[in-house]
Amino acid sequence: MTSILQKLLCLFSSLLFHLIPLLVFSVHVLSSASPPAVQTEVAEADSLLRWKASLDNQSQYFLSSWNTTAGRPCNWFGIQCNEAGSVSNISLTDSGLEGTLQSFSFPSFPNLVKLNLSNNSFHGNIPSHIGNLSKLKILDFSVNEISGSIPQEIGMLNSLTYIDLSDNFLTGTIPASTGNLTALPILYIQRNQLSGSLPQELGMLKFVTEIFFSENSLTGIIPISIELALSHNNLTGPIPTL
Ligand SMILES: *[C@@H]1O[C@H](CO)[C@@H](O)[C@H](O)[C@H]1NC(C)=O
Ligand SMILES: *[C@@H]1O[C@H](CO)[C@@H](O)[C@H](O)[C@H]1NC(C)=O
Ligand SMILES: *[C@@H]1O[C@H](CO)[C@@H](O)[C@H](O)[C@H]1NC(C)=O
Ligand SMILES: *[C@@H]1O[C@H](CO)[C@@H](O)[C@H](O)[C@H]1NC(C)=O
Ligand SMILES: *[C@@H]1O[C@H](CO)[C@@H](O)[C@H](O)[C@H]1NC(C)=O
Ligand SMILES: *[C@@H]1O[C@H](CO)[C@@H](O)[C@H](O)[C@H]1NC(C)=O
Ligand SMILES: *[C@@H]1O[C@H](CO)[C@@H](O)[C@H](O)[C@H]1NC(C)=O
Ligand SMILES: *[C@@H]1O[C@H](CO)[C@@H](O)[C@H](O)[C@H]1NC(C)=O
């Protein structure tokens, strides 16, 4: 009798001995290996909330739907996601938002294709990390109070089809790296305080159909291909001397 009990006990403890590591292992696996899509979503949500916290009070109030109880960022105001649930479009326009882009974590949005912050009160400069938005097609920062120079990293965004930086306080020269955006059709940078000569590299923009840089203090020679593009476009204001 006792021997059966002993055997059972022995079996049970050996079972436990094998089961405990298995349990510990599976708990560990479950907690650490959430799918990459979920990790991206959490990182994007965190980054948006951190940026929101850097904006002025009224802007934070305006973005009250940006909260974790409201679920995924895909449901938040001005945010759209792709089919995989990753943030693809950020459109926060005409909303009186006030703050800077310094706390915007560009590397956290690898799938962003559209960033439209048009007609707000964003100030400060354009961080060089904007070059991290490798899939960005549309960039619209028009009608804000953005200052400083255009970072040369803009030349890394070779998916861009539309850039509008018009009506800001941008200074300095147009970076030569803009010429790297060889497939870019549309570039609006009018009504800033840009100076210097137009970089010859702009001549590499073979597909440009609309380019506006009036009401700056630009000088110099218009690269020949741009001149052709301008000939069937509306360049107003002072044309650089030819
Ligand atoms: C912004 O909100 C915080 C906390 O609600 C408050 O302490 C601060 O005074 C507010 N600032 C302005 C400028 O309204
Ligand atoms: C969070 O967002 C939801 C959905 O927009 C909203 O109903 C709720 O009031 C928000 N919560 C806070 C604390 O702002
Ligand atoms: C995001 O913006 C792009 C470019 O404007 C557009 O083609 C696409 O439909 C938008 N995506 C969503 C989910 O709205
Ligand atoms: C800019 O946004 C304000 C609201 O903040 C709106 O009243 C105004 O009409 C907008 N301007 C343009 C040109 O859309
Ligand atoms: C960005 O938003 C403004 C204001 O709503 C709109 O007029 C403009 O067409 C948008 N830009 C792009 C590229 O969609
Ligand atoms: C992001 O941009 C910065 C500045 O251009 C660069 O140093 C960094 O390597 C980039 N990171 C990624 C992940 O692309
Ligand atoms: C962009 O352009 C600059 C200046 O023309 C050049 O030095 C650089 O190698 C180019 N490539 C990238 C990816 O920026
Ligand atoms: C150029 O201006 C004319 C007259 O103002 C207008 O009809 C035409 O649509 C404009 N073209 C472009 C490409 O904006």
Structure description:
This protein is an alpha/beta fold and 242 residues long. The chain has one domain (38-231): Leucine-rich repeat, LRR (right-handed beta-alpha superhelix) (Alpha-Beta Horseshoe), CATH 3.80.10.10. It is 26% helix and 17% strand. The protein has four helices and 13 strands. It has helices at 2-32, 36-54, 57-62, 224-231; strands spanning 79-81, 87-91, 98-99, 114-116, 121-124, 138-140, 145-148, 162-164, 169-170, 186-188, 195-197, 210-212, 217-219. The chain has a seven-stranded mixed beta sheet with strand order 1-2-4-6-8-10-12. Strands 3-5-7-9 form a four-stranded parallel beta sheet, with no helix packed on it. A two-stranded parallel ribbon has the order 11-13. The longest helix has 31 residues, at 2-32. The termini are far apart. The model is unreliable at 19-32 and 231-242 (pLDDT under 50). It binds 2-acetamido-2-deoxy-beta-D-glucopyranose (NAG) (8 copies). One 2-acetamido-2-deoxy-beta-D-glucopyranose binds at residues 93-94, 116, 118-119, 138, 140, 162.
